[in-house]
Amino acid sequence: MNFDKDKLKSEVQLTYTRVAEDPGGYYHFHCGAQYAATHLGYDLAALQALPLAATEVFCGLGNPFRIGVLESGATVIDVGSGGGMDCLLAAKQVGPNGSVIGIDMADAMLQRSIGAARAAGLVNVRFEKADMIRLPFADDSVDVAISNGVINLATDKEAVFADLFRVVKPGGRLQIADMIIKGELSEEARNDIDLWTG
């Protein structure tokens, strides 16, 4: 790739900051609870029970919960947690003896997710600013890592997966919903930041 990776990171932050600040704006991807329920298989009633601050900015690509149920007492991380919708759902699944930690690099999304967790009354979930290539967790400390439509934005996916394998316990799980490309992209497409940012 010939473009500046720091510029890409900045553009991704800017895109999702705009979503956090203007969830009703026009984006070239889908947002919101209705989309999540209608197209991705989320339970609409469960989403409607969550604070709007978390659900209206949801812009995932799939439903990581369809891969498996989170067990009571589990430690779960969400890589690229956005407004926190998946974290809040996970916190309800793992119960008061479990814990959920969402990481994101967009301050505006973190503000939303922290406020949404407070509004939902969930004390077993927290949010941190972090880069998905350098996860702020100890080795073998996580039962399940979830991510929804975020890893495709990383320029070094091997580094992301290496760090996920570092923090997830032996026998733990990755529950990832994301996009993949079956064919080789042209050099022009690989260097087009607009295609990377959403």
Category from helices, strands and their pairing = alpha/beta
Strand neighbour order, sheet with most strands:
3-2-1-4-5
- DSSP, total strands: 5
- Overall form: globular
Helix and strand run: HHHHEHEHEEHEHH
Largest sheet: 5 strands, parallel
Beta-strand content estimate: 15-25%
CATH class call: Alpha Beta
**Would you identify the regions where 5 or more consecutive residues have pLDDT less than 50?**
none
Q: Report the CATH topology name.
A: Rossmann fold
| Gyration radius from CA atoms, angstroms | 16 Å
Helix run count: 9
Keywords:
39% helix; alpha/beta; single chain; five-stranded parallel sheet; 17% strand; 5 strands; Rossmann fold; globular; 198 residues
Structure characterization notes:
It is a single chain. The protein is α/β, with parallel strands linked by helices and 198 residues long. It has a single domain, classed as 3-Layer(aba) Sandwich (Rossmann fold), CATH 3.40.50. The protein has nine helices and five strands. The longest helix has 17 residues. It is globular and about 50 Å long. The mean pLDDT is 92.
What is shown here, in short?
The chain is of the alpha/beta class and 198 residues long. The chain has helices at 5-21, 33-40, 44-48, 52-55, 85-94, 107-120, 157-167, 187-190, 193-196; strands spanning 75-79, 99-104, 125-129, 142-148, 168-177.
